[in-house]
């Protein structure tokens, strides 16, 4: 039997679709999303959730991919790929550094 469940998808009033996912990410990527949320909140002059930051990041990657000639990788994708290629560290160290980055104390 397959334990995977098809995620629920529904239309939103603004004409988009919403789907819920569970994604496992390295702490460095979570820290980057926190930075993206902070930047976006400053730009929008209101609090921004990590969900909104992810949606914004996906939209910017998609639009950048359409604007680039074939074979070129968008900067947002390249920067995310470089984070994941860092050498592994103990989870506690990753969490501590990610929290420091989010709080701006690193």
Topology:
Blueprint: E1 9-11, E2 17-19, H1 27-44, H2 50-67, H3 75-84, H4 91-103
Antiparallel strand pairs: 1-2
Task: Report on the architecture of this protein.
The chain has 106 residues and is mainly α. 56% of the residues lie in helices and 6% in strands. It has four helices and two strands, in the order E-E-H-H-H-H. A two-stranded antiparallel ribbon has the order 1-2. Strand 1 and strand 2 form a beta hairpin. Helix 1 crosses helix 2 and helix 1 runs parallel beside helix 4. The longest helix has 18 residues. The protein is globular and about 40 Å long.
Major sheet size, sense and barrel closure: 2 strands, antiparallel
| Helix count from the secondary structure assignment | 4
Q: Specify the helix fraction band.
A: 55-70%
Output the radius of gyration: 16 Å
N-to-C series of helices and strands: EEHHHH
Which ranges are low-confidence, i.e. pLDDT below 50, for 5 or more consecutive residues? 74-85
Shape call: globular
Give the helix/strand class: mainly alpha
The mean pLDDT is 74
Strand residues, percent: 5-15%
End-to-end C-alpha gap: 46 Å
The overall strand count is 2
Q: What's the arrangement of strands in the largest beta sheet?
A: 1-2
